[in-house]
Design a protein that fits this description.
By secondary structure, this protein is α/β, with parallel strands linked by helices. It folds into three domains: 205 residues, FAD/NAD(P)-binding domain, CATH 3.50.50.60; 106 residues, Flavocytochrome C3, Chain A, domain 1 (Alpha-Beta Complex); 89 residues, Methane Monooxygenase Hydroxylase, Chain G, domain 1, CATH 1.20.58.100. Helices cover 34% and strands 17% of the residues. It has 13 helices and 19 strands. The strands form five sheets. Strands 1, 2, 7, 8, 9, 10 and 17 form a seven-stranded mixed sheet that branches. A hairpin with a 2-residue loop joins β4 and β5. It is globular. It starts with a strand and ends in a 9-residue tail after the last strand.
Length: 538
């Protein structure tokens, strides 16, 4: 039996949450970071807007807390919200000490932070690095991680399933002791063991046909945790970003909400500013309202998109404030200073996820989660813009400190090698591609911005059939990266549908025509799903 790889801490994912946790945890032991593609390919890399954090005398923690609670539509946990917002400034200082160069501007007495404003915020409080904040954070943290001798980064290593004592047959206790991992280069599955394992795998945007997310966002962490018996919550709340570039050659390029914060207007094809008909806040209304208004306008008019108009700000301002977006639009023949930008909504952020406390602690001892994969209670039914990177750094830091405080596990466990049995090499890869495409089209058509229970039921039946087919394929053939992702994708799609069917009201990001308003007959509650009997065969 091949010995498993042993580390003190195991991190699955290499975005802000995973890297921040690794840097802190490395103060107490060895850390392995597993990432299924290159280390920098994560949702963090593609984050344009910034980090929401109180930093001016015109702002306060109470205002930021209230904006978050208002946007979350009654489902935020106020204690969690307060902790994350109040600890934000110190974590911003951590990033600055590591070398993140947040944008500044001339002010009284010298340079001051150039704070942005986005939908749902009552004050300017968005720390940003031009319009490529995530790229700067990712690169700075990766440099620090690669320079740390206690941290090992393993690229092209794809987590398959968590290893738990329950799955190994132990009856007296259960905990996570690591995970099985596919080495994509060799095709071999190896066991990685650790005292503490952090899920930092990001969200599930690729479950939808149109998404702002990179190809890696296939819901792996949620799927693995659910198969291990860990509860997941509020998966019905998928945030659709209102403004992705609409162009036949553009692959899910995001047009940051910061444009609307700087005065961009949303117009229909006739030049009418239609958002004011939906909400008096217009372009600065929360994302769920803006996305639904755009969806309704597209369906009403039959026109394939709407338009962002920021031409009045002028070329000099636009090239300095939004260099990445300006250059990208130019590649597609659109000059923001002269042309309106065609945009459509696309799946963007998973507000639900693996249930954790504010320290990232899950119900399964030894397993932690931080970032988009986790549901801490910060976002509620709708995420306030730029609260995601704030949550990722605060919760991952707290998770690392709590992991260190929990200490190593004394029990030695024999981990069996991966057994592929009589599995053969897959001979019908077209099935994988077909099922992947069918899931994403099904979710876009039936489980999108506006839903009906009839469409949700139809989606559920079709996903059940797909899940059976994929499960048979998974256990009959040797593993490859596409098959692992497809298995996770169909499970997460099913969790979104099941959660949406459980919620018989419209709240936040979940809008269902059968129940067009919130259910005020009882206090708002989370939608909790769990696998009753975790099994390695799930």
């Amino acid at each position: 039996m091949e010995s498993p790889k042993q580390f003190d801490f195991l991190v699955i994912g290499s975005g802000l949450a995973g890297l921040f946790y690794a840097l802190e945890a490395s103060k107490a032991g060895t850390v392995a970071i597993l990432t299924k593609r290159s280390a920098q390919e994560s949702n963090t890399l593609h984050a344009q807007g910034g980090v929401a954090c109180v930093a001016s005398s015109a702002d306060s923690f109470e205002l930021h807390i209230q904006d978050t609670l208002d946007t979350g539509a009654g489902l935020c946990k106020e204690g969690v919200v307060r902790t994350i917002i109040e600890e934000g400034p110190e974590r911003i200082r951590d990033l600055a000490r590591l070398g993140v160069r947040f944008s500044t501007r001339p002010g009284e007495g010298g340079e001051i932070w150039d704070l942005g404003k986005e939908g749902g915020h009552s004050r300017r409080r968005i720390f940003h690095v031009d319009d490529a904040t995530g790229r700067e954070i990712e690169q700075v943290l990766l440099r620090a991680v690669r320079a740390n001798p206690r941290i090992t980064v393993l690229e092209d290593h794809q987590a398959v399933d968590l290893i738990t004592l329950a799955k190994l047959g132990y009856a007296s206790e259960n905990r996570c002791v690591g995970c099985y991992v596919l080495d994509r280069a060799s095709g071999r599955v190896e066991a990685f063991c650790a005292h503490h394992t952090l899920l930092a795998t990001g969200g599930c945007g690729k479950v939808y046909l149109y998404t702002s997310n990179p190809d890696v966002a296939t819901g792996d962490g949620v799927a693995m945790a659910f198969r291990a018996g860990v509860p997941v919550a509020n998966m019905e709340f998928i945030q659709f970003h209102p403004t992705c570039l609409y162009h036949p050659q553009a692959k899910s390029f995001l047009i940051s909400e910061a444009l609307r914060g700087e005065g961009a207007l949303l117009l229909n094809h006739e030049g009418h500013r239609f958002l004011l008909d939906a909400d008096p806040r217009g372009e600065l209304a929360p994302r769920d309202i803006v996305a639904r208004a755009i969806d309704a306008e597209i369906k009403r008019s039959g026109h394939p998109c709407v338009y962002l108009d920021i031409r009045r700000k002028g070329k000099e301002f636009l090239r300095e404030r939004f260099p990445t977006i300006y250059a990208a639009c130019l590649r597609y023949g659109i000059d923001m200073a002269e042309d309106r930008i065609p945009v459509v909504p696309a799946a963007h952020y998973q507000c639900g996820g693996v249930v954790t406390d504010v320290d990232g602690r899950t119900e399964l001892p030894g397993l932690w989660a931080a970032g988009e994969v986790a549901c801490t209670g910060l976002h509620g039914a709708n995420r306030l813009a730029s609260n995601s990177l704030l949550e990722a750094m605060v919760v991952s830091y707290r998770a690392a400190r709590a992991s260190i405080a929990a200490g190593p596990v004394s029990r030695k466990v024999a981990i069996p090698s991966w057994d592929e049995g009589s599995a053969a090499d897959p001979d019908e890869l077209v099935v994988v591609a077909h099922n992947w495409r069918e899931i994403r089209e099904l979710m876009w058509d039936y489980v999108g911005i506006v839903r009906t229970r009839k469409r949700l039921h139809r989606a559920g039946v079709r996903l059940q059939n797909l899940a059976r087919e994929i499960r048979e394929f998974y256990w009959s053939y040797r593993l490859n990266a596409d098959l692992i992702e497809l298995r996770n994708l169909v499970l997460v799609a099913s969790l979104v549908v099941d959660s949406a069917l459980e919620r018989r009201e419209s709240r936040g990001l979940h809008y269902v025509l059968d129940f067009p308003g919130p259910d005020d007959s009882r206090p708002p509650a989370d939608t909790i799903l769990r696998l009753s009997e975790p099994s390695i065969r799930a």
